[in-house]
Amino acid sequence: LCLTVKPRLQRSVGVSFGTHSSWRRKRALFQASAISFQKFVKFALNETKRQTHLVPSPLQVKFNTVNSMDGKTELQMLSFQASKIRLLRSLSIETEAMQVLDFAAFPEPEFDIPIFCANFFATTNTNIMVLDLNPLHDVISRADYKERYYRSLMPLGLKYSELLPWGGKLTGESLKFFSPIVIWTRFTPSQDKYEVLYSAFMDYYEAWLGLINQAVAETDASQIMCNREAQHRYLTWRAEKDPGHGVLKKFIGETMAKDVLRNFLFNGIDELGSRTFLDYFPEYRCEDGTINEKRSVMGKSFENRPWDTKGNFIGGHSK
Ligand code: BLA
């Protein structure tokens, strides 16, 4: 059975800001309290430039700054690459009512190091934050992979999972893409929390840069293939099921939203592999062969942090 569930926030996160003067008034209020993610992006780019030779990505030509359909909001897109970094890209949206950052860095397939992932969605009422070094390979079945990359990062994860506690149930399927040090949190806006978040972002990004700096290119063709497929599977998941899709659609329309998702945010889908979403995630197949539009077929799961302090998975079978 296939149910079409309308993204809940689509209705409440409209882009109608009322008259211009009321918008200006609200903006004045907003500037006093809201977060801006510009300094996050600036930090990450400066640090990467300091440690690698970062050059603009060819994607930058097509994806730079786009205005929302009502002309009131700018979507800012930046993209770069470096010898070990296939794509480092950022999308930010800032309005009086909402600030969004989707910042990710994808290694070249010669490296099996994790994918840097910072997804922040902030409104005046709530903040939804995911910060992680998303594992390329399954950390539950591949204990060696978990050991190699996360053992030494556990103290970092522990520190911030206390300061930014688990955000409660989430799309169960997402957990496979998260690491034992994932920060998944929700909070009501406060300056203190934003400072903690900024500090977490800096520490996680430095940790990721450390991994990429130390990484030695794989030469075994089958291992490279395996990394490529794992990254392709990740991109395929996110381009299809990203929670930001509804918001993007509101701002720039469905055609452009899909273009941004497939060709910018999760670029690589057409180059790194040829399997489809349903090849990777057959449980989403509807009777008529289409993709189930629900984000989750498993349901919302993991009320509490499903990793213990040593990084062991304690989520049981998800409920
Ligand atoms: C909500 N975003 C969420 C949630 C998660 C993520 C876990 C909670 C809802 C859920 O259970 O899914 C983030 N999920 C991720 C990430 C991965 C994943 C990073 O699987 C990686 C593998 N979020 C954005 C952007 C926007 C955005 C760019 O990253 C907007 C343009 C919005 N995220 C957004 C909104 C919600 C949300 C509106 C709440 C609505 C909802 O629950 O669907």
Radius of gyration: 19 Å
- Indicate the proportion of strand residues: 15-25%
The gross shape turns out to be globular
SS-derived structural category: alpha+beta
The first-to-last residue Cα distance is 21 Å
Put simply, the count of helices is 10
pLDDT under 50 segments (min length 5)?
1-19
**Count of strand segments:** 10
The distinct bound ligands, ions and cofactors come out as:
biliverdine IX alpha
What does this structure look like?
The chain is α+β, with helices and mostly antiparallel strands and 319 residues long. Helices cover 37% and strands 18% of the residues. The chain has ten helices and ten strands. The longest helix has 24 residues, at 191-214. The radius of gyration is 19 Å and the shape is globular. Residues 1-19 have low confidence and may be disordered. The structure holds biliverdine IX alpha. Biliverdine IX alpha (BLA) is lined by residues 7-9, 100, 102, 117, 119, 121, 128, 130, 134, 170-171, 174, 177, 184, 238, 243-244, 247-248, 295, 300. Biliverdine IX alpha (BLA) binds at residues 7-9, 100, 102, 117, 119, 121, 128, 130, 134, 170-171, 174, 177, 184, 238, 243-244, 247-248, 295, 300.
Which structural traits does this protein have?
319 residues; two-stranded antiparallel sheet; binds biliverdine IX alpha; eight-stranded antiparallel β-sheet; alpha+beta
Write the layout of secondary structure elements.
Layout: H1 9-12, H2 20-33, H3 38-51, E1 55-56, E2 65-67, E3 74-81, E4 85-94, E5 98-107, E6 115-123, E7 127-134, H4 143-150, H5 154-163, E8 170-171, E9 183-187, H6 191-214, H7 221-241, H8 245-252, H9 254-265, H10 277-280, E10 300-301
Antiparallel strand pairs: 1-3, 2-3, 3-4, 4-5, 5-6, 6-7, 7-9, 8-10
Helix pairs in contact: 3-6, 7-9, 8-9
The structure holds biliverdine IX alpha (BLA).
Residues 7-9, 100, 102, 117, 119, 121, 128, 130, 134, 170-171, 174, 177, 184, 238, 243-244, 247-248, 295, 300 line the site of biliverdine IX alpha (BLA).
